[in-house]
Design brief:
Shape of chain B: globular
Strand content of chain A: 5-15%
Oligomer: heterodimer
Helix content of chain B: 25-40%
Order of helices and strands of chain B: EHEHEHEHHEHEHEEEEHEEHEHEHH
Largest sheet of chain A: 6 strands, parallel
CATH architecture of the largest domain in chain A: 3-Layer(aba) Sandwich
Helix content of chain A: 40-55%
Shape of chain A: globular
Radius of gyration of chain A: 24 Å
Structural class of chain A: alpha/beta
Strand order of the largest sheet of chain A: 1-7-8-4-3-2
CATH topology of the largest domain in chain B: Rossmann fold
Largest interface: A-B, 54 and 63 residues
C-alpha cells in the first residue's frame, strides 16, 4: 500500500469585532441581528471597565503595602466576559485560574472577595451559597483536572443541562495536569469547556519558547476535541465560541477547547517587572488592540454610547471600586484561634489542644502547657 | 444503573450533612474470633462493596480496577455489581485521576482512588498533597475532599527501589489528611469502611505482601474508629509499637522474647493521623521502655515523631532512651537477601528490645 493520509486537520480562527472597530456581519449578525444585543454589549463593556478599574486600584493597594501580590487582568477582560456570558450563571460551574476576575464576578462572586483573597485572607475564597465558582487556583494546572472531575460528576449525577468551564494560560498547557485533564475529559466525554487565555507570556517566557506548536488550539487535536482559535480581545468571538462549546457539552458531545488570543498588558504579578524582558514596541502594538477600546467603538457606532455615558460609567466604576476596597478593608483580621477552623470537618484532639494552648502561649505544641506531661511519682 | 439525585444544597463537608451509619465504640465491635476466614484483599473488597451499596455517591477509580478486576484482584467482581459508571478504569495518569477525583468530590461524589502502588502516587503529589488536604482550609470551609486514596505501600518483595516506596513518613508530614495503615483483614475492613464515610481525605496504605493473609472477618458491617490503637499482646518489660505489616514482625519478636521470659506490650497503631499517643503513653508509664518499629526511612520518620511525643509527655517514666527500628537509610535494595536485611524484621526488633530491657 502506498502512503496515505492518516489524519488531517485545520484550526479555524474567529474574529468578529476587530481592533479598528470593524464588525463582521456574516458571523456577528447572521440574519441581520447581532449575536449580542446592545444591552448585552453595554453590560459586558461595563463589567470590563469595572474590572479594569479594580485592577488599577489593586495595583495601587499592593504598591502601598496593603496587599501581598496581585496579578493584573489588564487587556484580557474580553476573554473573561464573553465566555462568562455564554455560560449559564448559577447553573454551570466556573473553575478559574487567577486572571479572569470578570468571569467570576459575572457568575456572582462578590467583588470584594477577590481583594480579600489577594490581601492574604482565606475567607476571600469562602464562595457564597449559590455562586458556582471554585476558589482561585494558583498552582499552575491542578484546577483543570478538578474541572474535569466536576463535569464528570454532572454526568454521573445525570444533571444534563450543566457544564463547567475552566480557564488557564498558555504556559499551563506545558503542564502534565493539562494533558491529564484533556485526556480524561475526552475519553470520559464530559461536559467541560477548556478555555486557554493565550496572553503570550508565562511570566518571562514567551509562547515561542513555551511550545513549538504554532497554535495552542492544535494541542486539543490530539484529544479529538473540537478546537478553535479566537481573537481573545473580541467579546463577540469569545462569546460565540464558548456558546457553541457549551451547546456541544450539554448535548452530550463532550469537551471543547478554545484558545483566546490576547496579551498580558501588565506585569505577570506585582512581583514582576516585564520591562526587563519585553520589547516596548510589542506592548505598544497590543495597547491598540485593547478590548475596551474596540467595544466602545462598536457601541458608539451603534449610537448607544457617548462621552456622557462614558463619564457616568467612569464615575460608577470609581464608586464601586472604593466600596469594594472599603468592604475588603472592613473585615477584621483573623485570630490565631481561627488557624484550625477548617482543617477537618471536625477538629481532632491534637489540633484542639494546639488551639487551646495557643490562647495563652505562642508555642502551642507544648504538652506541659496542655497539662499532658506525665510526672513520675517515684524518685 | 441508578442515577444520582441532584444536590439540593452546596457541597459542604460538615458532619451531620452526610447520612452516616452507626458507629459503635471499640468494645462493642463484633468479635475478632470466628471461622469466617477470608483474605485481606477480600476484606477490602467487602468494605468497598458494602459502602457502595449503602451510598451511591461512592465509586472506585484507578488503573485496571474494572475490566481486569484490579491488578491485585481487590476489586474482583465489582464492575459486574456496580457497573462502569461507578467502577472506572482510568488512563495511566495518577496525576489525572487523583485531580479529577478532587473535582468529583467537590461536586458531591465520594471517590475511592486506587493507586496500584503508593510508589506511583509520587507523580500525583500536587493533587494529593497540595489540593486534597488543603481544599477545605483554603476555601474557608466551603469544599472538603471526602476521598479515600488507597493502594500498596512498602516493599512488595524484590520490586526494586522505585516501586517499593513507603510513603507514610513523607506524606504524614502534611496537615489536613488522615492516614490509615491496617495490619490484618479484620482491621482492614472496619477501617476502610470508616475511611469511606469520613468527610476528610484519607490515605489508606495497604501492603502487597499481606493481601493474601487470611483471618476471621465478620460478615456484618462494622466501623473501627480512627485514632484508637489495638493492644495486640500484653507484657510489662517494654512497649513495642508499630503499624501495618511490621506489626507481624513485632509479634514474632515478642514470641521469641517470651521464650526468654521477656513479656512486652505490642501496640498496633492502626492510624497514623490521628495518632493514639495516649495509649502509647499509658503503656510506657507501665513499662518504662519503648521500641518503635517503622518500615520507612529513619530520618524524620513517623518513629521519630512518636518518640518525640513520648519524650515530651513521659520523660520522667523512661528508664532507657527510646529506640527505633527503621529500614536502613538507603533506597530499597533489589537483592532478596539485602531487602530482607533492610526491612525491620523479627531478629532486628528482638535485638532492639533486649538492648533496652537488659540495660
Amino acid at each position: 500500500m502506498p502512503v496515505t493520509t492518516a489524519y488531517e486537520a485545520k484550526i479555524e480562527h474567529i474574529s468578529i469585532l476587530d481592533e479598528h472597530g470593524k464588525f463582521d456581519k456574516a458571523l456577528g449578525a447572521p440574519g441581520g441581528k447581532p449575536i449580542l444585543s446592545d444591552e448585552e454589549v453595554i453590560h459586558l463593556y461595563e463589567q470590563m471597565s469595572i474590572c479594569r478599574k479594580l485592577d488599577e486600584t489593586a495595583y495601587k493597594l499592593q504598591r502601598s503595602g496593603r496587599m501581598g501580590t496581585y496579578p493584573q487582568n489588564k487587556g484580557q477582560e474580553a476573554n473573561a466576559v464573553g465566555s462568562a456570558l455564554a455560560m449559564k450563571k448559577g447553573n454551570d460551574w466556573v473553575v478559574p485560574c487567577y486572571r479572569e476576575n470578570a468571569a467570576m464576578f459575572m457568575h456572582g462572586l462578590p467583588y470584594h472577595m477577590i481583594l480579600l483573597h489577594w490581601m492574604g485572607d482565606e475567607r476571600g475564597n469562602q464562595i457564597p451559597e449559590g455562586v458556582n465558582v471554585t476558589p482561585l487556583s494558583v498552582p499552575i494546572g491542578t484546577h483543570m483536572m478538578h474541572a474535569t472531575g466536576i463535569a464528570w460528576a454532572f454526568k454521573l449525577r445525570g444533571e444534563k443541562d450543566r457544564a463547567a468551564i475552566t480557564y488557564f494560560g498558555d504556559g499551563a498547557t506545558s503542564e502534565g495536569d493539562f494533558h491529564g485533564a484533556m485526556n480524561f475529559a475526552s475519553t470520559l466525554k464530559v461536559p467541560v469547556v477548556f478555555y486557554c487565555q493565550n496572553n503570550q507570556w508565562a511570566i518571562s517566557v514567551p509562547r515561542s519558547q513555551q511550545m513549538a506548536s504554532k497554535t495552542v488550539a492544535q494541542k486539543a487535536l490530539a484529544y479529538e476535541m473540537p478546537t478553535v482559535r479566537v481573537d481573545g480581545n473580541d467579546i463577540f468571538a469569545t462569546y460565540l465560541a464558548t456558546k457553541q462549546a457549551r451547546e456541544r457539552a450539554v448535548a452530550g458531545e463532550g469537551p471543547s477547547f478554545i484558545e483566546g488570543v490576547t496579551y498580558r498588558l501588565a506585569d505577570h504579578t506585582t512581583a514582576d517587572d516585564a520591562k526587563r524582558y519585553r520589547d516596548p514596541a510589542e506592548v505598544e502594538a497590543w495597547l491598540g488592540r485593547d478590548p475596551l477600546i474596540r467595544t466602545r467603538m462598536y457601541l458608539e457606532m451603534r449610537k448607544v454610547w457617548d462621552d456622557k455615558t462614558q463619564a457616568k460609567l467612569d464615575e460608577r466604576a470609581a464608586t464601586i471600586t472604593s466600596e469594594i476596597v472599603a468592604a475588603a478593608d472592613g473585615i477584621d483580621a483573623p485570630t490565631t484561634d481561627q488557624f484550625f477552623d477548617h482543617m477537618f470537618a471536625e477538629i481532632p484532639g491534637d489540633l484542639r489542644r494546639q488551639r487551646d494552648t495557643m490562647r495563652t502561649s505562642s508555642i502551642g505544641q507544648n504538652p506541659e502547657q496542655a497539662g499532658l506531661r506525665a510526672q513520675a511519682e517515684r524518685v | 444503573m441508578t442515577t444520582l439525585s441532584p444536590i439540593e444544597t452546596k457541597i459542604h463537608p460538615a458532619l451531620g450533612e452526610w447520612e452516616l451509619p452507626t458507629f459503635l465504640p471499640e468494645d462493642q465491635l463484633p468479635s475478632r474470633e470466628g471461622d469466617r476466614v477470608i483474605q485481606f484483599r477480600e476484606a477490602l473488597r467487602e468494605a468497598m462493596s458494602e459502602e457502595m451499596r449503602r451510598d451511591k455517591r461512592v465509586m472506585l477509580m484507578g488503573e485496571e480496577v474494572a475490566q481486569y478486576n484490579g491488578a491485585y484482584k481487590i476489586s474482583q467482581g465489582m464492575l459486574d455489581e456496580f457497573g462502569p459508571k461507578r467502577v472506572i478504569d482510568t488512563p495511566i495518569s495518577e496525576n489525572g485521576f487523583a485531580g479529577m477525583a478532587i473535582g468529583a468530590a467537590m461536586y458531591g461524589l465520594r471517590p475511592i482512588v486506587e493507586f496500584m502502588s503508593w510508589s506511583f502516587s509520587l507523580v500525583a503529589a500536587d493533587p494529593i498533597l497540595n489540593n486534597a488536604p488543603k481544599m477545605l482550609y483554603m476555601s474557608g470551609g466551603q469544599w472538603g475532599c471526602p476521598i479515600v486514596f488507597r493502594g500498596n505501600d512498602g516493599a512488595g518483595g524484590q520490586l526494586g527501589s522505585t516501586h517499593s516506596w513507603c510513603v507514610e513518613g513523607l506524606f504524614a508530614n502534611v496537615p489536613g489528611m488522615k492516614m490509615v495503615i491496617p495490619s490484618n483483614p479484620y482491621d482492614a475492613k472496619g477501617l476502610l469502611k470508616t475511611a469511606i464515610t469520613d468527610p476528610d481525605p484519607v490515605f489508606f496504605l495497604e501492603s502487597e505482601r499481606m493481601l493474601g493473609d487470611k483471618a476471621h472477618v465478620p460478615d456484618e458491617e462494622y466501623y473501627i474508629p480512627f485514632g484508637r490503637a489495638r493492644l495486640a499482646r500484653a507484657g510489662d518489660a517494654c512497649t513495642l509499637l508499630s503499624w501495618g505489616r511490621p506489626v507481624h514482625f513485632c509479634m514474632e519478636a515478642a514470641e521469641a522474647l517470651a521464650a526468654d521470659g521477656i513479656e512486652v506490650d505490642v501496640l498496633d497503631m492502626r492510624t497514623i493521623r490521628p495518632l493514639d499517643i495516649d495509649s502509647v503513653i499509658e503503656s510506657v508509664k507501665k513499662t518504662s521502655r519503648v521500641v518503635v518499629v517503622d518500615q520507612s526511612w529513619p530520618f524524620a520518620s513517623i518513629a521519630s515523631e512518636v518518640i518525640t511525643q513520648i519524650v515530651e509527655r513521659a520523660f520522667d517514666f523512661l528508664d532507657h532512651q527510646p529506640k527505633r527500628v527503621n529500614t536502613v537509610d538507603v533506597p530499597t535494595p533489589y537483592n532478596k537477601h539485602l531487602e530482607h536485611a533492610y526491612l525491620p524484621n523479627a531478629d532486628r526488633i528482638a535485638e532492639a528490645v533486649r538492648s533496652v530491657v537488659n540495660a
